[in-house]
Predict the structure.
Amino acid sequence: MTTFAGLVATFVEFLTVAIHTILYERAIYPAETFLSARKYQYAVRQNRHPRVCGWIQDAVSAVEAELLKGTVARVALVIFSASSQPLERFLFDLSNFPEVPPDELNTPFERATVQESSRQPAGDETALVSNDLVPDLSVNLEEQFRATMARLSTCGSHLGQLPPDCTYTVVIENKHNAPPPIGRPQPWIPVEPNLQVQRSTDEQSADHFKQNSKQSEKEFEDTQDSDLGGARTLPIRSVKAGEMIFELWVEEGKSKGLLAEASAG
């Protein structure tokens, strides 16, 4: 994990394991469709259905392509009810990832050990440190990934049971002023405005959404971000090891409470 490309590859590998874990813990598929496995020296679950595995791999690969462009602020796994109401969002906040030019994706990060830094004269810039002086972050990162998986594996007891027939998808939130991921083939589509974040470029977002639907700009603005924030937020874990810095939490949607009340009634 000495380059940005290596950082992204390490994260998407973790994201793959996290998605399988979330699908198991939230009972999106029957428990018998999951295999027991080990990752980060921790017992995890992996769905064994080829189509599920293929979909997750395709989604993670699409996320990886956008991460390498440096345009992604957040990645989320969103769980929907059978009527397409957002119930839970598992959010990975990647806004603290380093920004690296496209031609430097494989350039080693500049790092300094405590000993190297202490030898630098006051006011001098830290010099590029050779690989043999760079501290090994792999052990620390594995410990933090393991702790995160432990938290994800117990999230079900804090979130409660989901209704039957839930679906899910992977969503990315771009950084401010970042261009949308448009191209051919097109793995991404604009989300409904109720799941889009209010930002300073609302007019551009509205124009982009209108190109992909018959919804008017007024309807877009009235409903934008209405399903974000949720009724409750559950922190999962903050990870910080070298340049690998991100936060993970769960947001329970407002519609989840409404469904629970309707069921109770």
